[in-house]
Task: structure prediction
Amino acid sequence: EPEVTQTPSHQVTQMGQEVILRCVPISNHLYFYWYRQILGQKVEFLVSFYNNEISEKSEIFDDQFSVERPDGSNFTLKIRSTKLEDSAMYFCASRRLLASVQETQYFGPGTRLLVL
Amino acid sequence: RKEVEQDPGPFNVPEGATVAFNCTYSNSASQSFFWYRQDCRKEPKLLMSVYSSGNEDGRFTAQLNRASQYISLLIRDSKLSDSATYLCVVNSEGGKLIFGQGTELSVKP
Result:
């Protein structure tokens, strides 16, 4: 069964450093998402991406964050200058199409980011 | 008011018990509703979509009450493997998913 993959599974970085989290969505999916989950808290939406541009972003997704689809398969989240509060689990998700309101999103296994 | 609200639990039940989870949502324009399951430190996985007419999948039954903006999940004959956090999820118009805090379930032998 096709699945969303993410790399790395864990990343430890120093405050102020840049990190890039990578995702490979399911191949025939058109809509891509990033969510994050701070330890002990709920899953929060960060950004959605369709047709090579951001379609929606949350208040969390400030100028320190960016997303890119550099080729036909990868979808990346970059954090330019990490802060302690960026420590969280970051999930990538993809969806096939928007027309069906029941179409669900499939999540990758996540990248656990720890900022020291 | 929170966009999606759930009782955080934990619910501690014996094997074989029936357990019910409730959820309320604030946006009356919401169109799609789901229950996801999340095991410790893992990704959310779709358990079932929730339809207006209610739907059942084996031991799991989901109900939606649009007038009350209320969603429920019933688990019958609970198994040890049902232990997890159950996430009530609402799909906004733009497609993003809005998650509740989750309800923790622990099924004991």
About this structure: Residues 15 and 68 of chain A are 22 Å apart (CA to CA). Chain A has a mean pLDDT of 92. The longest strand of chain A covers residues 43-50.
